[in-house]
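Hi R.,

As promised, here are both runs. First protein below:
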Amino acid sequence: MAVSPEEIGLCGCWQVLAVERTSYDLGQPAASPTVEVGYYASSVTVDERDAAQMAAAIRGHWSAIENGTHYRRDVTLGEDACRVADRNAAAVLASLRNLANALYELEGDAGRTTVDTLRSWCQQQTFSTAWRLLRR
């Protein structure tokens, strides 16, 4: 069913896309697959990108998240291994991980660090150096 973005309250958008994903639990081969639908709003017109190009853009977006931010947060900073049960504490820790990741990226982009991994960079930080970065 086609609807306009205005009809669903997303003024300024040119496309609303629904992407169906089927997931298989590789640890449970006999389990039924899980199907979910993700919705995307875009300011790109249909004339600018067709469905295949939009699908490629969505895959690229999620690939960057999985291979970039999520990898750093999970593998480098051990987010998935963290067993903090309190929801507020978990949110604070996630914010601190995002802050460390962002500061590392900013320092690298500005050429102020030669360290090539987030883990190495974090190990070099002290309160004083981190505070100096936050005050810039």
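And here is the second one, sequence first, then its structure tokens:
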Amino acid sequence: MTPVSPRTDTVRVTVPDPELQRRVSELELQLLARDAQIERLEASLQDARREVVRSLARLQTTASRAEAASALAEADIALQSLRNRDAQAPELAQARALLEMSTGEFGKENYGGALYLATQVKVLATAGSGRLAGASASGVQPGETAFAVPVPLQTTTRANVRAGPGTDQRILFTVDAGTALTGHSYTKEWVRVSDASGRAGWVYSNLVGRPGGGGR
């Protein structure tokens, strides 16, 4: 009778990489800090807007009822256009809140405040439309990551805005140094941007910086 060898089960055990775990924990903490910073900045921005509106009410600016009504109508159209393009656009919630505030100030006959807030709605809606135009033109890129909020940028030198993230991509248009852009997302060293007229594309990150900062 042939002896039977005992069966041995092999279990593969993966030992976590301590350095990788440390790096993941560090990144998670950085994300928490960034989110908290964004929340504080948004709260500060809201407070600043409210103060501007209160100041305009006290100053009794020369903005007329007709001007404020026209701005409100334009803001509503811009908001509806953005909603029709993307009902989940991140700019929508803030723009809706600002439109409600604008309508409220109009009802209080603070036409300067209503005009100011309606203009803010149009700025947000334009930024959202620019972001969507860029995304539809070149599609979502591998590894593309959206910014938590639209990022104000300014070109530090004359720059080509391309159809995709790469120097081999077609040049869509060129902007001069000091041109204001809005950053929406990034992948590697390229940033998806739009300009004030709604044109969109990709620009190399070394060619843009913070407005008035002269650099990154």
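A quick note on the second one: The helical segments are 18-59, 65-85, 91-107, 111-138. Let me know what you think.

Best,
J.
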